[in-house]
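R.M. (postdoc): so does anyone remember the format we settled on? I'll just put the structure tokens first.
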């Protein structure tokens, strides 16, 4: 069998295919048969090429990173997916001063957000090379905020493999998808249908002029009951960050002391949270330093963040302490 290279133009080649339907069908069948193979090995080939000692400019042709200075991030947040959920997480992290990086597979979104100064990467979060480039080994929290349930599972499994200590928060659409993600290593799974139901009944209660503090108490109770499955599905030892998942009828919340809050400048002994409000202060975060088990003579400063343990119905009452007077009147 003799094979010759085609020496004509592209137009001549298309004309030949159109006049020879058997050849056209053969090429089509071969192309369709080859497509799954190419897609299957493509990601692994990219990972292999990125491990080679190639120039950074070539590597960034696959996984470009904005504003890379060579410094590796530590203790940062990685957001996978930059839809509505990812944007809200990034906005909150930026306002709180939390370092973060974003992974997004839509090149148009990456280009637009990079021009706005977002620390965003182009790539698939299910690829090891992309996660490594975002500093997965040193991240504290990973938020998986994409809509594809299959991809969410792959990403969760890979993230847990690359960083056994990272805290994974995964977003999913339905409650029944929670168990598989928890088994793959997610620490928390937020089902949208459950949170949507909370938002709906919240708006209903507001229309009936139910006091805001009562609504907050109802929300806390519903969440405590709804996420009860976390305690039965998760078999990992409890860390401080997820201790609330293993304690019945209590939750852990954080509150920031407002500059004009009535407790600013007062000592813990004067406030006496346990006796007056039935809650326990676990720690204080001050300028990113943790003060565990503070004594009664510790005075609270503006912008201190208090970590409090207590029943859900008590939290709404405690929250009022941390607001300034005008905010309390508006509730």
């Amino acid at each position: 069998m003799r094979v010759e290279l085609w020496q004509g133009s592209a137009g001549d080649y298309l004309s030949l295919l159109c006049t020879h339907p058997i050849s056209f069908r053969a090429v089509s069948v071969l192309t369709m048969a080859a497509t799954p193979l190419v897609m299957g090995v493509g990601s692994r080939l990219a990972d292999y090429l990125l491990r080679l000692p190639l120039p950074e400019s070539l590597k960034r042709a696959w996984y470009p990173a904005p504003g890379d200075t060579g410094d590796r991030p530590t203790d940062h947040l990685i957001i996978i997916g930059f839809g509505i959920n990812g944007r809200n997480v990034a906005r909150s992290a930026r306002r709180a001063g939390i370092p973060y990086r974003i992974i997004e597979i839509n090149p148009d979104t990456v280009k637009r957000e990079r021009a706005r100064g977002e620390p965003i990467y182009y790539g698939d979060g299910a690829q090891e090379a992309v996660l490594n480039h975002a500093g997965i080994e040193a991240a504290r929290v990973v938020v998986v905020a994409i809509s594809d349930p299959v991809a969410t599972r792959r990403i969760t499994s890979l993230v847990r493999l690359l960083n056994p200590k990272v805290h994974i928060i995964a977003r999913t659409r339905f409650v029944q998808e929670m168990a598989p993600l928890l088994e793959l290593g997610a620490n928390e799974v937020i089902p949208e249908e459950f949170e949507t139901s909370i938002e709906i009944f919240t708006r209903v209660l507001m229309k009936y002029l139910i006091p805001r503090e009562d609504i907050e108490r109802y929300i806390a109770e519903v969440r405590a009951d709804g996420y009860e499955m976390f305690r039965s599905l998760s078999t990992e030892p409890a860390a401080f960050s997820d201790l609330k998942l293993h304690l019945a009828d209590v939750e852990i919340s954080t509150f920031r002391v407002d500059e004009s809050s009535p407790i600013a400048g007062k000592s813990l002994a004067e406030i006496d949270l346990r006796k007056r409000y039935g809650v326990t202060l676990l720690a204080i975060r001050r300028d990113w330093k943790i003060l565990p088990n503070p004594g009664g003579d510790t005075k609270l400063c503006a912008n201190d963040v208090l970590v409090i343990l207590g029943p859900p119905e008590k939290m709404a009452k405690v929250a009022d302490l941390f607001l300034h007077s005008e905010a309390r009147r508006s509730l």
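R.M.: ...and that's the designed sequence above, right after the tokens. Also worth knowing: The chain has three domains: 10-53, 77-240, 250-330. The radius of gyration is 26 Å.
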